Write the structure tokens for this entry.
Amino acid sequence: MSVEFYLVAAFAVLMTGVSKSGFAGGLGVLAVPLMSLFQTPQAAVTVMMPILLVMDCANIWNYRHSWSWIYVKSLMPGALCGIVVGAFTFQWMDPALLKLAIGGMALLFVLQFTCAQTIGRQARDSSRVVVFSLGALSGFASFIAHAGGPPVKGYLLSRGMEKSLFVGTNSVFFFTLNLIKTVSYMALAQYSQETLTASLLLTPFLVLGVLLGFRLHHLISQMLFTRIAYLFLALAGTKLLWDGALLL
């Protein structure tokens, strides 16, 4: 892999670590597109997967006392169903339409938050059907287009969760999904010595990003955290809409 690839990948991994460990993600959606400038998208995804798993493990340890089994349990059945459906449909599913749908949903969550802040309306509890559907959409989008974050992040943010509880719950949920995807990649023989070496060489930037994310998480207030998290969600949604439009 070229020097240019490693320069871009180092920046992408650093930003992913900061956003994922400090704010439960958002900027991570930029990693694969940036790395794909100098490698195939498949190689970029394969390089990122071990890195994401290590980030998830670090987050789970750091937030081990701050995550909700209730939310993970309620979202996981739908997510597993979404992964199964994605496994059987990924060959003919149009990723452009999926990215447009997920991006639009992310911006709807942001709009809902903005309206609630303006008029002071409290979030209502979601039905089991809605929670199952959001989990399924996340699992499906994660398998098809690596875009499963916005449905779950938007839902958890809309619950008004405390910042550490939000990051911890998000980390446990996506660690489970990423672990399943990693097993799938191994079964499909996607890993190579080159991609694993690249993942290893990027480890210092992973560590730096995670530590910076943890530091920022504890420095900012709950309200500022919520606004930054929604900003990241808006950026991710906009990026998905842009990518989807380019693929049409």
Summary: The mean pLDDT is 86. DSSP finds eleven helices and no strands in the chain.
